[in-house]
Amino acid sequence: MDLSPGKHYIVAIDGVSGSGKSSTAKTVARELGILHLDTGAMYRAVTFLALEAGLSPRQTPEIDALVKGLHWDADAQGKLTVDGRDLSGDIRTAPVTAAVSDYARIREVRHSLVPVQRSIGMRQPAVVEGRDMATVVFPDARFKFFMSASPEVRARRRVMELQSMNLPADYAQVLSNLSERDSKDSGREHGPLTMAPDAIEIDTSGLTFEGQVAIIVSHVLKNLP
Fold first, then answer.
1. Among 53, 92, 54, CA closest to 69
2. CA-atom Rg of the chain in angstroms
């Protein structure tokens, strides 16, 4: 179903790591017939490229230069490429997951990526997901959601995701990493993880995947002009 002609709108989905944002946003976008933009993948890509270049989070000038020199693109399905490279597999590895919060909190990184995210999101109706979509990047989004779930549920989901990709997954380590990332994401100075006052919160701990998708899709369809 394509609801987009002549009617631009943004569905902003924020939430904690492992709450199901990415898979939910992708399916919501497909059901609505609009673009899906995973901004978390952009920060993961920067992290991967910084690690690849041997840059630590303390090397701010070098990272700033790296990010400013990148060319981003997204196809109709929301698949991101960076300088023509598809990094979708590289950015889901354990080293990137462990380090992404440290690179994502760098002011220069966020200042460089936010305009790119806005540019992509304003080309056509889109479902955009991340941690500051409704508060920083698209504060005027017509639809805002915040997804949460208990740490234990999120850790189990992440382990299953890693196992499905044939990557090593230790539940205790994953749970520890999630808790640490929650603290870093909520406490950072620039673009902290927080729920917009006018967002609808969805606790996915006891929901099926189909249920959480249905909540968002039905709300959007009911409130479109």
1. 53
2. 17
Task: Select from 42, 10, 68, 50 the least CA-distant residue to 191.
Answer: 42
Q: What are phi and psi of 2, to 5 degrees?
A: -115, 115
Separation of alpha carbons 82 and 49, rounded Å: 10
**Per residue in 182-192, pLDDT tens?**
787 777 776 67
Sequence ranges of the domains in the chain: 10-223
Between β-strands 126-130 and 35-38, what pairing exists: parallel, antiparallel or unpaired? Answer: parallel
Residues in the chain: 225
CATH number of 10-223: 3.40.50.300
Instruction: Inform me whether the pLDDT recorded for 2 exceeds 50.
Output: no
User: Taking a C-beta distance cutoff of 8 angstroms, is the pair 108, 118 a contact?
Assistant: no
- pLDDT grade, residue 76 (50/70/90)? low
